[in-house]
Design brief:
216 residues, alpha/beta, 5-stranded parallel sheet, 7 helices, binds S-adenosylmethionine
Amino acid sequence: MLVDVFTLVPEAFEWITRRRPLAAVLGDELELRVFNYRDTTPLGARQVDDEPYGGGAGMVLRVDVVAAALDAVYGGLPEHRVIALSPGGRGLDQALVEELAAEPALTLLSARFEGFDQRIVDHLSTDVISIGPYVLSGGEVPALAVLDAVARRLPGALREESGERESFSEVFDGGLEHPHYTRPAEFRGWRVPEILLSGDHAEIERWRMSRVRSVT
Ligand SMILES: C[S@@+](CC[C@H](N)C(=O)[O-])C[C@H]1O[C@@H](n2cnc3c(N)ncnc32)[C@H](O)[C@@H]1O
């Protein structure tokens, strides 16, 4: 899978490539490329944004700048999905993550300041995705969230098959995973549930499934 990220803060994507799950799949199941809009802007002085028509606070990411960035990389619009990250988009949930992880390639567009010129959303993007009903300062954290969640679903990303037994998975009927405990068995009087120390794997599994919570 190929993921291309367009951003004004390329350095935001450095650490994640050195950590699992990305580190495990990079160069194998995943190719990640990060592009800075400023490197291909047709405007002078590496300008990428402008004042909003009609007035108001903040700067808006220009449509010609994003088009130039896409032209430079794809020679136009790519065949694959181009996702504008925006608080007004479709909410990212596990079903959408699974859908994205099955794609051969994705492009993630992030903005800062006041956001995208609407023509970027209308004409250069195929999807708009939000990571939640709140406003962040830029699309980098949302892009990292998409990247991490998608990378977890790629073959070899996780050490064990723990991805099959996670919150929202079929094993838990789309519900939230049961709690986990590790050593010590008692800490400040807080005991680990006895059943987990019993060695009775069938009973442990029954207990775990009884602790799966449905998503409300
Ligand atoms: C400060 S926000 C712009 C907010 C915009 N003016 C509004 O009121 O909806 C700057 C950029 O951060 C990104 N962003 C902020 N919150 C986001 C969220 N919840 N999900 C996805 N992207 C988000 C988007 O790329 C957005 O254009």
